[in-house]
Amino acid sequence: MKNVLFVLLLFSACTPKPKDISKQAAAEIIKTDIAMNDMAVKEGFHITLLQFADDSLVKPQDGEYPVIGKTALEKYWSGKPDTKAISWSPFKAEAAQSGDLGYSLGNWKFVTKDSTYFGNYYTIWKKHTDGSWKFVVDGGNNTPAPVKN
């Protein structure tokens, strides 16, 4: 009986708690979000988002209906110029206790020849069975330039 109790206590101590799973998932989301930005400034925004997209994604479009599905997004962007001039940085991420769904929030910047635009974004992430994170919803808004102190 003592051996059974010892094994149960040992297993209980080694099993990740939901809060630990949630924190680890949030850290993975931040890491994935940063990796997506790093790839976008090198490879292009459209190419990168398609690489990190879940097949069932929803991509809201300003003044238009949202694009639903990875194939539809690829078709929507077909023939449109891609850009390497947009960058972003997450400032917050949270994940479900299950560790398989979460979101990130951050700031973005888009630099053109004549102007620089700023905004906030939200991305909802889903963890796949291979351990990778793919976004299922990604959107944002424009904001004024950040205030410099």
Question: Helicity range of the residues?
Answer: 25-40%
Report the average pLDDT across residues: 90
Number of domains: 1
Shape: globular
Q: Quick one: CATH class?
A: Alpha Beta
The CATH architecture name reads: Roll
How would you sum up the major sheet? 6 strands, mixed
Structural class: alpha+beta
Task: Please work out how many helical segments DSSP would assign.
Answer: 4
Q: Catalogue the unreliable spans.
A: 5-13
CATH fold naming = Nuclear Transport Factor 2, Chain: A
Number of beta-strand segments: 6
Organism: Candidatus Opimibacter skivensis
Protein name: DUF4440 domain-containing protein
Q: Describe it for me?
A:
InterPro entries: NTF2-like_dom_sf. This is DUF4440 domain-containing protein. The protein has a single domain, classed as Nuclear Transport Factor 2, Chain: A. The chain is 37% helix and 39% strand. The protein is built from four helices and six strands. Strands 2-1-6-5-4-3 form a six-stranded mixed β-sheet, covered by helices on one side. The longest helix has 26 residues. The termini are far apart.
